[in-house]
Sequence to fold (590 residues):
Amino acid sequence: MTSKERVLAALEGKPVDRTPTCNPTSVATVELMDLVDAPFPNANREPELMARLAATGHTELGFDTIMPVFSIIQESSALGCKIQWEQKDNWPTVRMAEPIWETAEDIVIPDDFLTHQDTHCVLEAIRILKREYGDDVAIIGKTMGPWSMGYHCFGVEPFLLLSLDDPDATKRILDGLKEATVDFGVAQIEAGADALTLPDHATGDLVSGEYYARYLQDLHVEFVERIPIPLILHICGRTVDRMDYIAQTGMAAFHYDSKNKPGESMEIVKDRIALVGNINNPETLFSKGPEEVSAEVTDNLTSGVNLIGPECAVPLQTAVENLKAIPETVESWSNN
Amino acid sequence: MAELGDIQNEFIRAEIEEYLERPEEIERNIELFSRSRPKMQDMAAALIDGDNDTVDQLTREALDEGIEALEVMDDGLIAGMGIVGIKFRENIIFVPEVLACARAMKAGMAHIEPILSASGIDPVGTVIMGTVKGDLHDIGKNLCIMMLRGSGFVVHDLGVDTSEDEFMDAVEEHEASLLGMSALLTTTMPNMGKTIEAFIDADLREDVKIMVGGAPVTQEFADDMGADGYGKDALACVDLAKQLLEEIEEEQNA
Fold:
């Protein structure tokens, strides 16, 4: 099988020749930036640099996927949020302390949402990657969910307080923002993406599983209907209490965090949704070595996790040898 | 020895019975609430419920009735936040509920703080808090600040993207004995170590206890950086702050 065939088969629940390796978020590191001369922040804003850096996930690390969206700011930037761009060794971040909206009625998806520099960059990078690698490697795009954009556009604390004070207003906000999710997602399909990551950070570190059911489950079902491509939901943190809800959405996969054990997570979702993950970033990939990485990969493999990769965007200072240990371990395990 | 039935407020009794499991916490809260006035129990109940209007009203009433501001703070507001902290730690409530409780606490403290400031009463401790340089995430830091203030600490919040100089200046200006640094990104974690180094270079390290926290931070990382402590969540931050204050007192008495 080609990498692309392998990834798409895993996302569709079909047989594979070996477990695919995948990072639906980002494998960009400073080491890789130096290797191909595609440093942050420019690699987040210029399509050629974005594509060149993203490709290293396959060409240097050996993953079955290429995912060019290294951060989570593109949609919010196009909506008008202020971005702190930082330097090579740090991610760009939305200035959530300076929210742009206060009520659902303030929401406007601007006419240039898909032609703004930061959304356009992603679309163009996907086109480049499709041309160069699209026959053999799965190109994964990313479109942010409305809960995450709620944090960015309204501020984390105001948004979370509103979710308690006024559920109806919160739902109106989510309904307003979901169109940005759909528009950007569909545009990436047209650009050539084979699958999309959909981060929507209703994490167990912040909100309850019941919140996910109340606010997001129906929206995620709607996304499956309106964005016709395999969707990989990403939620950080503790999520076992909402995995059953997530498994019912029809999404192709759930990218899950190391705070959830592979076996326990597989037991909950069973064969209703594929799992992607969940190698620990700060304690393992960033801080330890290939042996420890390999152990976590093996734990996921023996639990039957469908696609193996880091739990989230890898720390920028992660050693390449640690990231390579992921596909190397999978290869070795499948040959035994 | 006090018993649950000695607590007059039904809501508080139910909170202790239903949500507290650790024997020492049950005992401490029964003891605390059983000896506090009914109005203080009502205030704590309203705070736990996130009802800032009622907390505001009861605080004003209590002060008008001549109840000491310190008693109102300790037995009404801090007592309530103690239960909130436990429920948050046990994942019974989550951040939205904690934010609502903190808002209620703030409503009460708006009446208390001017009185305490004028009276010259020393707070439990003074803490400088900030997210390190290059990091704009603050929800974890803010939860720690809410719990620290809810436990009687004075906290000066430096916000996000805080430089080494800003941390040092704040510690000196406010004569703070505690500094708390937060980071959510592995890319910004090293700035904790750089800040600690800056304190050493400026000969200020011995003047302050430094605690760190944040999603990617671990005890091991904190130890390697030379921090005095690591808090894995908001409630642990409060316990750590109190522990570090005890260490300072022991060092001063030695």
